């Protein structure tokens, strides 16, 4: 199959085609969209190129088998969950520790989405006011990194250069800042 | 402060293609494009994990070779599975042929019987 010809088709549509005619080539088109990302995820957890490559192959096989059995609605989140669980299991087998707590983080995503839905229903000016108030309540580090990243559209490296923080610190300040912002907003929305 | 502040919590739906990601890893993107990739990372745990993992690969050319091998292998496996499925289908087919032949045979026999019964002694 010509990959470029199917580039405009969404993941959901490719899956629908597969569910309709059971032709594995649809799965091939879908899975190869994620080869690079899956390799990256496996590298992050396993830190070994050969092991990461083997794991991506195993994840592909698992995905092919599971997709033939069950209907998957959100492929991207699903394949990420399969990959992360696979790596965590592998690490656990290797080290005898490390417990997968992905269910917990998925639950977190759902709660976050609910909060955002509530926020979307508000008037734009009210939303802006609540966001400003919440942003002001963040600690200086997180506020500064979020402002530089989202409002001034600076890259991680540029923010690290101008603040003197390491890139790792910038990334975690942005992530934690976003999480805290959601919590603060959630509180304000529920008041 | 502008309405841009609302973008902090609105996840971007824009996906980054593999080429742009490879260029990001190689440090070949403009400041604007770098920010675009990093915004995608900040909005998606999947993307962030993937980029952090790919950054650990020392020789970036290895990434392309690995992806190529994995895709080739994937398509080979899927083709084999399709062939197996087709074979299974063909194996099931003789039963259909046997059934059709049996029905036709029964029809012919019935026709003959009716003919015989209709013949006056």
List the helices and strands and how they pair.
The complex is a heterodimer of chains A (191) and B (121).
Chain A: H1 11-21, H2 24-32, H3 35-46, H4 49-69, H5 75-95, H6 102-120, H7 124-137, H8 140-151, H9 156-163, H10 167-190
Chain B: H1 18-26, H2 31-43, H3 45-54, H4 60-118
Helix pairs in contact in B: 2-3
What does this structure look like?
The complex is a heterodimer of chains A (191) and B (121). Chain A is mostly helical. Chain A contains ten helices and no strands. In chain A, helix 1 (11-21) runs antiparallel to helix 2 (24-32) and helix 7 crosses helix 10 (167-190). Chain B contains four helices and no strands. With 121 residues, chain B is mostly helical. In chain B, helix 2 packs across helix 3. Chain B starts with 17 loop residues before the first helix and ends with a helix. The interface between A and B is large, with 58 and 48 residues.
Provide a quick synopsis of the model:
The complex is a heterodimer of chains A (191) and B (121). Chain A is mainly alpha-helical.
Low-confidence stretches of chain B: none
Count of individual helical segments of chain B: 4
For the report, how would you describe the main beta sheet of chain B? none
Provide the succession of SSEs of chain A.
HHHHHHHHHH
The shape of chain B, in one word, is elongated
- Report mean pLDDT of chain B, rounded to a whole number: 86
Which structural traits does this protein have?
heterodimer; A: 191 residues; mainly alpha; 79% helix; B: 121 residues; 4 helices; elongated
